Amino acid sequence: MSRFDFSHPPFDTLSAAERDTLEANADIVFFDDESVILGPGQLVEALYVVIKGLVREMAGDEVIAVYRERDTFDARALVASGTTHRFVVHEEALVFSLPRTVVLQLTERNPRFGAFFYASVSQKFGALAERAGSRELQTLLTATVRDVGSRVPVTLLGHQTVRDAAAAMKAQRVKSVLVRHEDRLGIFTTTDFRDILLGDLPSSTPLASVAQFALLTVDIDDYLFNALLTMTRRNIRRLVVTERGEAVGMLSQVDILSYFSNHSHLIAQRLERASSLDELAEIAGQITRLVRILSSHGVKAPQLGRLVQTLNTRLFERTWKLIAPADVVANTCLVVMGSEGRGEQILKTDQDNALILRNGFSLPQLPGLAEAFSAALERFGYPPCAGGIMISRPAWRQTVVDFSRTLQGWVDRPDGEALMNLAIFVDAEAVAGDASLLHACRSTLRAALVDDPSFYARFARAVEQFDTPLGLFAQLLTQEREGQAMLDLKKGGIFPIVHGVRALALEKGLTENNTFDRLDKLATCGALERELASDVGEALGFLLQLRLEQGLEEMAAGRAATSRVAPARLSTLERDLLKDALAVVKRFRTLLRHHFRLGNF
């Protein structure tokens, strides 16, 4: 039995032979209280892994990190052959001492192991995601359509009849057939039989006249997650599988649900069929449970955000349709904003929504309907917005012309509140009703945004609102909260990235809402260097993931999810990556200061 625990990073990346090498060269060393294990100017000859006890890392008289069981120190010093900090035993410590020469040899042989010592920020975050995925069975994030397998499609010709299709479906025990007609490929399903019966069409009707030729397809090597997302968004039950552009199979929701234990597509279908707010309240709880399941299976925060956005869109749309009469839905546009609009809200936070009315449309009952909607969302677990950004407030329930006038005012008189409201609205996404009403308001906003560097500088200046909690010697800067040293991931890291990217996107006239999509577009158009855009995206993904994991822990303990994290409770790897992520935030903020000349304000 091994005396060394290889289950934690980065040692979980080692092969069996590499583990044997490391274990054969590992020594166990005891240090008494207040012993100095490493100090400034001292040659670093080993990497240490704590077995028992506590070790504190000191910069002068300041404690910047505490290492406990299974934590590793100091990888950076090992590579640099020296450290500027002191590592002092706080409680009697028993540690593994891993010789520097052996560790460095392993980093050369094993790129994944070495990534934690030498890699760029993006590579380290990527290695973390790869390792997390390898610990699980294939997940929605990594499995492809090819992994699931698909049924060989039954194909008929366009001149064949509906009766022929029925016979083929019965013989082959399928619920759909492909229809090839001239140079087009279509699909005919059991659902189409309903329309034929209602239309009194004869069974001799050629398939070419009733098949659906606007096929939705998925490539056989595409991620299964993308196929699931397409089904959920389009409210369909099957996709045509293609390989090199040719149809090779049919993928149904049953195929996916038999492969995975989660039922996100079934949740979407339940939302479509829900006939009461009671049903929707139950389904809203299922969305949170789904997040917990998928997160435990390795699906990461950015992908979860997009899936939750899709399901929430259905939830909000169905809620509005159950509350509001059809003519109200047709003459309004319900929009979500902020993190919900960007597709980056995973756990339920406060409501950020608005209602845009068609010009000339009014209804005395509308305020009551809006109040009922806000109350329903609160019942579903979305607390009211502290700033009142909800359709129950008249300021966020206006006609197109009034909203356009409001937007123009925010641009012309950009005080703090106006800029905050504008930032929230920039991320707006239509979820129900007539989306052209939102497009009309966006057009007004684009016209109002003249080429005025001072406006964009004032807009971007909010990135200076909170300090990045990373000190001069890469120590994490915390504040005492509830008896623990904590830092706020949202204020210190997530918000500066999200708002900085939003400011650059607004300046460049980009239409994307999602921060990761915006980063990609900014890199493509040359507004950001590709390497920095990649680092910023990876840092944001890590911060969102860390916030999600902490939030799930808080909810499991019966507390409301927050953005605060206690660094002392993180692993060595997590603390190192948190420092790396916050260092990227600092770099990005420096770029924003120069770009928008924030020092002039």
If you had to describe this structure to a student in words, what would you say it looks like?
- With 601 residues, the protein is an alpha+beta fold.
- It has 4 domains: 108 residues, Jelly Rolls (Sandwich), CATH 2.60.120; 115 residues, CBS-domain; 186 residues, Beta Polymerase, domain 2, CATH 3.30.460.10; 139 residues, Four Helix Bundle (Hemerythrin (Met), subunit A), CATH 1.20.120.
- Helices cover 49% and strands 17% of the residues.
- Strands 1, 2, 3, 4, 5 and 6 form a 6-stranded antiparallel β-sheet that branches. Strands 15-14-13-16 form a 4-stranded mixed β-sheet, sandwiched between helices. Strands 7-8-9 form a 3-stranded mixed β-sheet.
- Helix 9 links the parallel strand 10 and strand 11.
- This is Signal-transduction protein containing cAMP-binding, CBS, and nucleotidyltransferase domains.
- One of its GO terms (molecular function) is [protein-PII] uridylyltransferase activity.
Brief write-up:
With 601 residues, the chain is of the alpha+beta class. The chain is built from 24 helices and 19 strands. Helix 9 links the parallel strand 10 and strand 11 (238-243).
* Content-based structural category: alpha+beta
Mean pLDDT reading: 86
The largest pleated sheet is described as:
6 strands, antiparallel
- pLDDT below 50 for ≥5 consecutive residues: which ranges? 129-139
CATH superfamily of the largest domain: Beta Polymerase, domain 2
The Cα radius of gyration reads 28 Å
Q: What would the principal axes of the Cα set say about the shape?
A: globular
Find the CATH topology of the largest domain. Answer: Beta Polymerase, domain 2
Number of helices: 24
Domain count, please report it.
4
Give the proportion of residues in helices: 40-55%
CATH C-level class of the largest domain: Alpha Beta
State the end-to-end CA separation: 64 Å
Number of strands: 19
Strand content: 15-25%
Q: Please name the CATH architecture of the largest domain.
A: 2-Layer Sandwich
